[in-house]
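Q&A log
Question type: sequence-to-structure
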Amino acid sequence: MICFDTHAHLDDDQFAADLPAVLERAAAAGVTRVVTIATTGPSSAACVDLAARHSPLFATVGIQPNHVAEAAPDAWDHVSRLVNSEKVVAVGETGLDRHWDYTPFPQQEDFFARHLQLAREKELAVVIHCRKAEADVVRMLRQDFEQYGPVHGVMHSFTGDWATAEACLAMGLYISFAGMVTYKNAQSLREVAARVPLDRLLVETDSPYLSPVPHRGKRNEPANVVHTAACLAGLRGIELALLAKQTSENAMRLFSH
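Response status: OK
Response body:
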């Protein structure tokens, strides 16, 4: 079985002491590729460096909406340079967040638009964060879609309703599910996940966060993506190996690797 973890924060301090062992466990579980996701300017540089040093890893560059306000004045210029680095497969994570109040919303919108533009210019995927801002994200994506056509990207760690998923699918996006889809209280999310077309479905860990059952409450890591994949396979009544194969092919198509 081959599985692709499309979203992990392997530059997080929680992996500083044992990343080689984490990657060994991932390989043993069949997780052969991982995208390590940037959240700040320094994080972007760290992800590029990790991808250069570890063959299973690919990187993104970008500034997550909750970190935009604190970013250094030259942070965006730094990201714009790093995007040309080897093994960078996407821009992000970017998007909008109304749960936290760390960055004024107009500033979030400005940086979301910048990321969308940079991804188009570089012909890379865009990794989209959305928390309690579904209508706003769909609005901005629709503006982009109406002007430029299909949006080459992924709604990461999706927790929205079917109407939001359907709107994103119609604009060309992939939908990715993390460990939350395995939680007992997530039946409505499972119902959405079951309706996403198999050729537009991705899996992720969002490590070190959101560990799936049976590891909930512990540090998450890429090997655990197989539990999320197993949950999604069960919803569809198909073998885990088939779902892992299809979602891996989807990820390689999205990230062109």
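Response note: The first helix runs from residue 19 to 28.
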